[in-house]
Design a protein that fits this description.
about 210 residues; mainly alpha; 9 helices
């Protein structure tokens, strides 16, 4: 276990830093909250699962050195980044084109949970900044006697698990708030907000130039 987990002072600092980063709203949180507002907390939780699996894929990629490729190859980074941005815009356009609800009290028709999970997975996986983030963040907390690929994978999995818990709180909270918003007359809020947020995240991802932050 000493090869997989750093000494306690370093490990406790990692847990605190991971929690602070996880609760700080970012593109992943906005994506999950948007799904919950538009389609309910079950879709939000399916998005959490998809995003978590995609982020763990990025943690694995960082562990085996894919981040190093992104760091030296602008082409590889750009291809993945723009593919993810286009997918976000595609999801936003789909949501805006979906049928509006007939009345203020109706519950929005949720997409199949398998599709929601897939969308979250693709959105998270096609974000090369997450891989670069893991490559920069995880080594700060690795012990001197660590086996790099194994300890970084364990730390990455723990970070993803912490983020999944905090993201689930966001998803459930947004899902609970959504019916109250609809009863107050915001019947198409989730659909319009969701489409706008997805398209905005797509353009933000495409236009963001830095490769050093998440």
């Amino acid at each position: 276990m000493t090869d997989l987990i750093p000494p306690w002072p370093l490990f406790s600092t990692f847990l605190i830093a991971s929690f602070i980063l996880a609760v700080t709203p970012g593109p992943g949180v906005f994506y999950i909250v948007t799904r919950s507002l538009a389609q309910g907390h079950r879709s939000g939780l399916a998005s959490v699962a998809g995003v978590a699996v995609g982020n763990f894929g990025n943690a694995l990629a960082a562990s085996i050195g894919l981040a190093a490729l992104f760091a030296v190859s602008s082409l590889a980074f750009s291809v993945v980044k723009y593919a993810g941005a286009l997918y976000l815009v595609f999801l936003g356009v789909q949501m805006l084109r979906s049928s509006p609800m007939g009345n203020s009290d109706s519950v929005p028709i949720a997409a199949p949970l398998g599709r929601v999970f897939r969308d979250g997975f693709v959105v998270a996986l096609l974000n090369p900044k997450t891989t670069v983030f893991f490559a920069a963040f995880l080594p700060q907390f690795m012990g001197p006697d660590a086996l790099p690929i194994f300890q970084s994978t364990v730390l990455g999995a723990l970070f993803v698990g912490i983020a999944a818990v905090t993201d689930s709180v966001y998803a459930v909270t947004a899902g609970v708030a959504a019916p109250a918003l609809r009863r107050r007359g915001f019947r198409n809020l989730g659909r319009r907000l969701g489409g706008g947020v997805f398209i905005g995240l797509g353009f933000f991802t495409a236009l963001a130039g830095s490769r050093s932050t998440q």
